[in-house]
Amino acid sequence: MQSGWRMGSVFGIPLFIDPSLFLILILIAFPRGIVWQQQYPAWGGSIAYAAGVAMAILLFTSVLLHELGHSLVARSQGIKVNSITLFIFGGVASIDQESKTPGQAFQVAIAGPAVSFFLFCLLSAVAYFLPGTFRPPSGTPAHVLAHDLAVLNLVLATFNLLPGLPLDGGQIVKALVWKLTGSRFKGVHWAARAGKILGWIAITFGAIELFIGRNFSGLWILLLGLFGLRNASSYDQATALQETLLTIKAGDAMTREFRVVDANITLRQFADDYLLNTIAPPALYAASNGRYRGLVTPEDLQQIERSQWEVKTVLDITHPLTEVSSVEEATSLVDVISFLEQNQLRRITVLSPAGAVSGVIDRGDVVQAIAQKMNLPVSLDIIRRIKEEGAYPPGFNVVALAQSAKEAGQN
Ligand SMILES: [Zn+2]
Fold first, then answer.
1. Which one is catalytic: 67, 98, 209, 243?
2. Are 329 and 251 a contacting pair, CB within 8 Å?
3. Where's the active site on this chain (predicted)?
């Protein structure tokens, strides 16, 4: 999640604030102001409300520190943290990469709750050593804030340790199952399953509170449950996608969308027969005497003087197959995906064991192969658009998923 307003950065990590956060700030600040005005008459209205606002801001500072805990531990493992976003349900650190070992994944997961627990201890000590009391009606604002924030940080640590994704406790379950079974994928599936169960429990409990108990806070629990359920499912899907990626070979994904050009024809004839009337020609390979000679890229034609087009042949601008970026039929799709990205290629040549051209793969073919294997309904229109634009649809983070699938496959 990287929506929202950029608010500078902490420890070099960009910090974003989602507009929904302001709603929750108000939902925390006002009720607190009202309650405290009644409980501590000596404060007066303006101090009670100011303390309510301070409370809301300090609460989200606590959430930020919790996320920083995860982020800094991840960074110490050489993992890049893209951003931290604060939003209505708390905070989220955007980390593309996975930890290399279950032990390291556990450290990243526990770091957030550990920070929250540390804040609980620290604020409790502050509340304890401050002169005076937090108890109504004679409590002071500093005392009340320290005491309430301590409690909220304890709640934050405990709530996040519930054992299901997307919560930290789910990440811990993932690390444990990963450690026990040796499979990160199994870890995610179990943790996601537990997360879905937690989500359904929250939805059921929230609905009972709301509709039978007539308690409005039930709506909040219900929404949290829905949010958790959706997130747990997307963890599950991303992992299923990674597992699928590892089973697909270049030979399964390639198409025969290429044409074979006679290597002996002149460039003039080549231009007239193959390039005229097409905006995006398919991959073109030159062949003669029943043998593939190499790849022909129409852009190379620009380098040749027009007067030479009648004299020179296609063979003169052919790149031998040994010099062309290619993969074998048995190459894994995750490698194809990384290769296309790293070399900024539009498509890649797939060679048969005998060294002949057996097919080509572009980003559209990658998506098509995944959709087919996972029974996803992806329309031909979408595939055609990906092929034309040479780019994956926005939000389809297959490149990062392929990278981490590759790492998981090597574990
Ligand atoms: Zn956390």
1. 67
2. yes
3. 67
3 state SS of 353? coil
Cα of 98 vs centre of ligand 1, distance in Å, is 15
The secondary structure of residue 4, as a DSSP letter, is S
Which residue, chain included where needed, has tokens 């087919």? 372
Ligand 1 centroid to Cα of residue 361, in Å, is: 40
What pLDDT is attached to residue 141? Answer: 83
Q: Is 236 annotated as a binding residue?
A: no
Residue spans per domain, the chain: 5-161, 250-410
- In angstroms, what is the span from residue 281 Cα to ligand 1's centroid? 50
66 is an annotated ligand-binding site residue? yes
Percent of residues, the chain, with pLDDT higher than 70: 98
- For residue 403, which amino acid is it? Q
- Per residue in 328-382, pLDDT (tens digit) is 999 999 999 988 888 888 889 999 888 888 899 999 999 999 888 888 888 889 8
Instruction: Give me the residues paired with residue 85 across strands.
Output: 16, 92
CA distance between the termini of the chain: 28
Q: Please, are residues 246 and 183 in contact by the beta-carbon 8 Å criterion?
A: no
148 token code pair: 């309430």
State how far the Cα of 224 lies from the Cα of 201, in Å rounded to an integer. Answer: 11
Joined tokens for residue 78: 């050489």
Give dist(CA 23, CA 283) in Å, integer: 54
* 389 annotated active-site: no
AA identity, residue 310: E
Predicted TM-score (pTM) of the model is 0.76
Architecture in CATH for domain 250-410 = Roll (3.10)
Beta bridge partners of 259: 284
